[in-house]
Amino acid sequence: MKMTYPRSRRWTRAEYDNLIEMGVFKPGERLELLAGLLMVREPQGSPHATGIRLVAQALRAALGQGWIVEAQLPLALDDESEPEPDITVTAGAPRDYVASHPARPALVVEVAESSLAFDRKDKGSLYARARVPEYWIVNLNDHVLEVYRDSGPDASALLGWAYRSTQSLSAGDHVTPLAAPASRIAVADLLP
């Protein structure tokens, strides 16, 4: 007997935004649109929440004026993706984004524990496809910072794009964000 799978329907970012405005989703419902699919975000434990706070604090100190460091707010990544990364760094000031969500982040950070494989493969391909210059994963399982840079086409990647440069940094290392080449952040300052 041949196995068949149900068809799924992909959503556009405009449709997703309309559903939000119409109040279709429950208040506080944790959803994000990734490559046309509505995904339920996982609950956060204390280490995850602490990681978000630490990364935001370190990036705000390193980047200074002219950069917005936000936690878990939407990005207008492309026509079918509106993720809410744990941390997003965009150029400008908050009022620059009154008409629409930021679309071109300089850096995206995910704090990962149970979602590590998904953040590496699925979200990594999504951010690479959107040409986000730099993507970090605070890997709570291995207590390291994974740094992804240099996105490009990759037929083997989920969405046809991947990062070509990958680096794993431990607590004794430092990282320099591409957006702030004169800054050095101690990886230990990012890890709970």
Please outline the helices and strands.
Elements: H1 13-21, E1 31-34, E2 37-40, H2 46-63, E3 67-71, E4 87-91, E5 107-112, H3 116-129, E6 134-139, E7 144-153, E8 161-169, E9 174-175, E10 185-186
Parallel strand pairs: 5-6
Antiparallel strand pairs: 1-2, 3-4, 4-5, 6-7, 7-8, 9-10
Q: What brief labels describe this structure?
A:
tt1808, chain A; 192 residues; two-stranded antiparallel sheet; alpha+beta
Q: Kindly state the mean pLDDT as a whole number?
A: 90
Total of DSSP H or I helical runs spanning 4+ residues = 3
Integer-rounded radius of gyration: 17 Å
What fraction, in percent, of the residue positions are helical? 10-25%
Tell me the overall shape: globular
What's the order of the H and E elements? HEEHEEEHEEEEE
In the CATH hierarchy, what is the class?
Alpha Beta
